# Entry
Amino acid sequence: MTVHPAHTRIEIGDLAVPFTRVALTNGETFDRYCTSGPGSDPEVGLAPLRAGWIEERGDVTSYDGRETQLLDNGRSAVRRGAARGEWRGERRRPRRGRNVTQMAYARAGMVTEEMRYVAVREGCDVELVRSEVAAGRAIIPANVNHPESEPMIIGRRFLVKVNANIGNSAVTSSIAEEVDKLTHAITWGADTVMDLSTGEDIHTTREWIIRNSPVPIGTVPIYQALEKVNGEADKLSWEVFRDTVIEQCEQGVDYMTIHAGVLLRYVPLTAQRVTGIVSRGGSIMAGWCLAHHEENFLYTHFDELCEIFRQYDVSFSLGDGLRPGATADANDEAQLAELRTLAELTTRAWEHDVQVMVEGPGHVPLNLVEENVRLQQEWCHGAPFYTLGPLATDIAPGYDHITSAIGAATIAMHGTAMLCYVTPKEHLGLPNRDDVKTGVITYKLAAHSADVAKGHPGARDWDDALSRARFEFRWRDQFALSLDPVTAESFHDETLPAENAKTAHFCSMCGPKFCSMRISQDVRERFGSDLSAEDAALGMKEKSAEFLELGASVYVEPSAG
Amino acid sequence: MTVHPAHTRIEIGDLAVPFTRVALTNGETFDRYCTSGPGSDPEVGLAPLRAGWIEERGDVTSYDGRETQLLDNGRSAVRRGAARGEWRGERRRPRRGRNVTQMAYARAGMVTEEMRYVAVREGCDVELVRSEVAAGRAIIPANVNHPESEPMIIGRRFLVKVNANIGNSAVTSSIAEEVDKLTHAITWGADTVMDLSTGEDIHTTREWIIRNSPVPIGTVPIYQALEKVNGEADKLSWEVFRDTVIEQCEQGVDYMTIHAGVLLRYVPLTAQRVTGIVSRGGSIMAGWCLAHHEENFLYTHFDELCEIFRQYDVSFSLGDGLRPGATADANDEAQLAELRTLAELTTRAWEHDVQVMVEGPGHVPLNLVEENVRLQQEWCHGAPFYTLGPLATDIAPGYDHITSAIGAATIAMHGTAMLCYVTPKEHLGLPNRDDVKTGVITYKLAAHSADVAKGHPGARDWDDALSRARFEFRWRDQFALSLDPVTAESFHDETLPAENAKTAHFCSMCGPKFCSMRISQDVRERFGSDLSAEDAALGMKEKSAEFLELGASVYVEPSAG
# Structure
């Protein structure tokens, strides 16, 4: 049986930072960035890693917080007159006059434990972390009420990150199922997880997810707010929304998608599109604007929102409610008008020391992908870009993890900091556990392709380690170094199940009698690895004789057994 | 049940050209390029569509051809003293002094039926076809001994094509299985198929495949030649190889991979690579060169090879035997030295009026992808580029259809004419039927993404038709327009199996009560599709009242039932 990677922690002073340590059969080890956390009993939750750090800064205080209401868990909880599976974490807020955001600390020149932790994970200098956060070019989403989280950073100078969406809907699923999806997503490499629940027990599901999550949790609070007004967008109000945001801030949500760029005057720009408005949040706000003929309350109350986010160090994910839902609509007036507004809001949030990332499309033909990230980076002063794909074509429902991985790798190569995964079920249905895994693995490989293309320090080491294992027929190492060792090994075993085939110097493509890898190993053995082409040409006549003498065989007999 | 697309033929004068006609529920139809052919009984084979055209040109004659030998079917046929399932197609060759290649015709200003057929399939002017073939910038692989083929074209001015590899190995499979894989591959969209068999019954398997194939068939004849010399590369000779090539030309192989660029002096350039030589053909020739200390016989006999290819109109696929097998080795000296030689050979083949495409990598980080096609196009005077992926990262065995689709879409966008698919089993095992389908669909979407990115005339029509169906909740049309209608429908049904959910104006992502698509349809209905932003802003107050009056509902009740 193949030895699968072990999770380990590297002790740096007082910090224990997680890595996945792959022990190779040649005695070497290879350490990979690890998202899975230490593992938790869902009923108990994770230990609050950051609680001590937060306490020690002495700038927050516990308080009772908002009282949970039945409606927080949806209309059926109201009907039942009771909620299910309630759980209440500790609520913290800043002491008067204190600003507890990582951005505020960074701007004040302070290096937090979160920044040190991130620097170890990323293998970079902590000053890079601090200065990028201070400049707004990176964020560390870390709500003071989510002390269970292992700090991570989102920014173009750092490893490209991947978000996985989970969440129940009116149609399906249970709390336990969603916690299981969370665990599954981070096991396979999700760097953040968004809980997009719209069904029953929204509040409680979120609490369970946060208490069990070592990665930052994002939400789209307008979804819950809409549930609270019986799904009628015109009944939404700033007050209902504000209350919902506070509810979620207190639970520990690390970043929230806010569709404050869907302005009244932009809505008609979508009328001529092939697919209009496809963002749920965008269409909710468009519906509200139209019904009231008023400006989007998320826009008009944006500074108040900043004040709330600042209390808990919640980061903005400025939603692209007018993103294109078809390649035909890419980079159009509606999309770019909204992006201009998101740029304005980025600056406003920064005035409050609130961290910001900006969301991006969607569906974009490959030739228009780079322009998306270029404009966003220019207009938004380098705030991290967080894109959904984009899908490079619309013709392959059922394979949109792939159509979008193509766009995602490309946009990340050009500077997108985080990619929101797309599963094979996109446009068709709700992702199950397997879809979550497929989506995460697909996006991890897209993100890593971008890291390699950007020449990110150390990124290609992983490729090289795997390729060397491949070249040297260290099959077990090849599996262990794979993004998905289980699948790699099972595919190998389908053709060559025997245990000794995993140590054999051949594979099923050429069979045991001929192997191209083997020949080039012969080339290397005969010419050495330090030979110039000229030396080689001169010395080749002798080598040729030697080669023939040694058997000249391109047949390699399988290992005994 | 969803109505699946029907295969149809468009009659243009005396030509009946195949299309996949999708009948939409709104009464429209959408025609797609179709590769599946009319369907055949494997025991009987396809009708020889091109036989009449070839006869009418009056420049070929039937002859007996080379006698089939037992060794053609491998050493076990020799042991048995008999071959299995023999089948012999008609053998044609040119009358004395005639040149029957499409390139020769094109250069002579002649428009063949093959060119006219291709022009209808591509929806372009036939003069574009003729002139591109004449210039060597496109090829129509169409061996006179494969009259069953439906002509197609490979070139950067045309739709990006996809090749699927099939073939048995020493480890597995039967003739029937390979014919079934062929049918499966073209059903899902493979534009050409390469038979890479190395196991038993090579000759006969190939004959069955060709007689049943409406798409061009490619091979790598060195594989069979190696079998004939008991797998010992140093025993290979020009004579054995030449005889094998003639055997395959007479059977009707349309293009052959020839590793004539693996020169003796380039072999040592691979010694310092992470993964040396990974091409089978490349390593066979490298092994031969080293054993004999002689120049590659494919290079020294290249003009003779051109003369043979010219007889049957077989196209060269100049193999990249030194392609990188790891991202670390991309665009290195060995790879580019070989490409220079392939450029030289391209020109030499053209002197014989023989059609040529040039093969490319492999494993290439995204930032180096464009350079590959740019250099190939420059050095090889625009001869079509035919690449294997490339894989953008090495870390995801089991998902290399995806790591490579990322590179494939990118390289095709920059001008690669045909993409060789990669299946999920790459590096791990032999693809089964399902892997063939996954590989083909993945590459079709990559190729189409490139067509869209290139602004290929009409390419985006397909995306737009599907997106319109999606926006208008024409679920059945969305399925039918998908690259894989079966998977799209089954994914939808997993969440919402009820028949009426396929006509409902909602989907499982938001559930029946809220739907963003529905809202933007409301926007369109209320503002019309010809409204400017200014008009809209002015008129919006009234519209707002109207909207509220009409219910202002973002809830949409599910269709009855």
